[in-house]
Amino acid sequence: MLIRCQRCQAVFSLQDGVAASGARFKVECGRCLQVFEAAAPKRAPVGPQGKTPLQMPRVPARKPEPPAAVERKSATPRSPPPSPAKLAKAFKPRRPPDDGVFERELLRVVTWRRRRIQMAIAVISGLAVVVAATQWRRFAGMPRGAEMRVETARQILLRDDLQSLEQAAALFTEAARIARGEAMPEAERAYALLLQAATHKDLADRLESAEREPHVRSATKLLQDGVAAAKAALEEDGEDPGAMRAMALYCALASAPERGLRYLDAAEKKGPPNALNAYTRAVLTLSGTPSRERQDRALAALAQARQAEPRLLRAQVDMGAISLDRQEPGPAREALSKVLEQNPQHERARRLFALLPAAP
Predict the structure, then answer these.
(1) Between the N and C ends of the chain, which has fewer C-beta atoms within 10 Å?
(2) What is the mean pLDDT of the chain?
């Protein structure tokens, strides 16, 4: 006996004789779990119209059983007829043969995509951990007031005029006082002092003797204060990248570029790339006997610094100074004009611009 599901059209087989002829019962599909009503087919009687009459099987005569046996049989309860639920479980859907190729291919695609997603999550998580660790190391243990002063000073330092550099150094000094024992604020203070020293030193080398002396005195004092602050930061943390970068800038101003390069290489290994590292490399490249090859390498480093931080006017001024030394007034005038447009208070840019020949 065959029964077809009304929803998914699955075909089920039921052994003949399980259900009475014409009986109706509920069936649960083994594939889609749809419950529907089924009926056992009626067995039509065989009549005398030209058909073979229904043949009843002959039952051999049995000997009469003793009364005791009859009593035992009558006392034994009969098994109840199978319930519709049992009938439904007895049905087996006839499914088409499946070799599992589709399932295996689907599993392979899902597994591949899952691995790609897991790898992407792992990479993103790793980068997040590195960034968080870097930020934590920069400001670990620092009070909030010191952090705010450091960030404000870094923004002011980008303007590069002497007044801005003095304000940045003062903020770094306050941050170092608040966060005693922390190397980073003192290292940043050292770099700001050394940038002021570099400004005065460059002006002293270019101006006439009457204007040179004040810049020489300022450069000497700021160099001493800057290297003292850098050494103090290294005593607090011998691996602080800002302190090593400050020492590299001091070596460049003291005409010791080889020693300064060792400091800078160590700073770049300890911290992420930044504009001040590229700028320091440019100053180290120009330290010593000037040559066109040194100037070309310095210009490349300054371009890298400007790309990393376009607001760093210091890199633009040094590019104008190199063009001035090469007797290339056009590029020098263009570079210095852009600086003065962004910061008209930039003393060094004004002085260098005044040294240019008159425009044709």
Answers:
(1) C
(2) 81
